């Protein structure tokens, strides 16, 4: 039986590149996607190029804690070798999910944390977990209000960056609490995908002047793939490099505080 790898947001730019690469390497890939139609189109395209690929798509909306719980329930009894938490969003405005969470934080942080924690019993003992962060993390701090921003606290990039920084702290606490797991973070750099559209008048200009200098999704996802297949843990994968987690992101007290606060929110 092939090793199973779960990829969230597998219908997106880097998620589909990861799925193609991993399926080509002989892994069974579970595409965990919000939009199953989009996932199926990607799956079929990969299968037409790699006919013996083993790929399945399953529904997962990370903005809904119920959807995450349902996905995890569907995975009970399935042995998982690795989880690539790739899905992410930059919300254009402030909105709350049905769970009362700010949308960017719901998807990039709360849903992703809940998914990872619910899948723990399905992991093989030395499973790899990779959380996708962002270079924007270095420009923000986590404060008391960061996890549950109010409308006045919201900014598109600031809230996104804080959600990724919270994920970086989660990764460190997860590794501490599960020493057998290999938990790493990956930073793709700036990648040509839908995510970098700002929904502004200058988008067409940016498409001409900026996009050509961004990494391709295949290139951007490389650090995540290296991390996913790595024997190391607690590292920061960026470009072709593997680094220690930068000192500015190390704060054990904060890791623990966020873990406890988050557990309350997600009901664990
Ligand atoms: N592009 C960059 O420059 C850059 C830089 C640093 C980090 N990143 C991170 O890299 C990861 C991949 O991004 P990308 O550039 O490949 O962007 P993308 O093409 O927009 O892919 C994002 C994926 O996340 C999925 N997603 C969004 N909301 C979701 C939800 N509620 N539930 C489940 N899935 C959801 C999307 O699903 P749909 O297909 O249904 O929309 C899509 O598959 C993200 O975590 C992003 O934050 C990107």
Name the helix and strand elements from N-terminus to C-terminus, one letter apiece.
EHEHEHEHEHEHHHEEH
Bound molecules: NADP nicotinamide-adenine-dinucleotide phosphate
The helix content, as a percent range, equals: 40-55%
Q: What structural class is derived from the secondary structure elements?
A: alpha/beta
| CATH architecture assignment | 3-Layer(aba) Sandwich
What fold name goes in the CATH topology slot?
Rossmann fold
Spans of at least 5 consecutive residues whose pLDDT stays below 50 are none
Main attributes of the structure:
268 residues; alpha/beta; globular
Describe what you observe in this structure.
By secondary structure, the protein is an alpha/beta fold. It has one domain: 3-Layer(aba) Sandwich (Rossmann fold). Helices cover 40% and strands 18% of the residues. The protein has an 8-stranded mixed β-sheet, sandwiched between helices. Helix 2 links the parallel strand 2 and strand 3. The chain is globular. The model has no long low-confidence stretch (mean pLDDT 95). The protein binds NADP nicotinamide-adenine-dinucleotide phosphate. The site of NADP nicotinamide-adenine-dinucleotide phosphate has 29 residues, from helix 1. NADP nicotinamide-adenine-dinucleotide phosphate binds next to helix 1.
């Amino acid at each position: 039986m092939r090793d199973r790898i779960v990829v969230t947001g597998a219908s997106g730019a880097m998620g589909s590149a990861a799925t193609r690469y991993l399926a080509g390497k002989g892994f069974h890939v579970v595409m965990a996607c919000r939009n199953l139609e989009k996932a199926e189109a990607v799956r079929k395209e990969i299968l037409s190029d790699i006919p013996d690929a083993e790929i399945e798509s399953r529904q997962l909306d990370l903005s809904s804690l119920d959807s995450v719980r349902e996905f995890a329930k569907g995975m009970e009894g399935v042995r998982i070798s690795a989880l690539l938490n790739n899905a992410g969003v930059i919300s254009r405005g402030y909105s709350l999910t049905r769970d009362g969470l700010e949308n960017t934080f719901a998807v990039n942080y709360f849903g992703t944390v809940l998914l990872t924690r619910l899948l723990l019993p399905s992991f093989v003992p030395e499973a790899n977990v990779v959380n996708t962060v962002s270079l924007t993390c270095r420009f923000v701090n986590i404060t008391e209000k960061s996890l549950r921003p109010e409308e006045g606290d919201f900014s598109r990039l600031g809230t996104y960056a804080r959600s990724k920084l919270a994920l970086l702290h989660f990764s460190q606490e997860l590794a501490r609490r599960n020493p057998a797991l290999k938990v790493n973070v990956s930073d793709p750099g700036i990648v040509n995908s839908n995510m970098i559209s700002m929904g502004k008048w200058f988008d067409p200009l940016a498409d001409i002047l900026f996009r050509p200098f961004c990494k391709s999704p295949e290139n951007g996802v490389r650090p995540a793939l290296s991390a996913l297949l790595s024997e190391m843990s607690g590292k920061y994968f960026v470009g072709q490099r593997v680094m220690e987690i930068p000192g500015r992101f190390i704060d054990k007290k904060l890791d623990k505080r966020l873990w406890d606060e988050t557990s309350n929110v997600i009901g664990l």
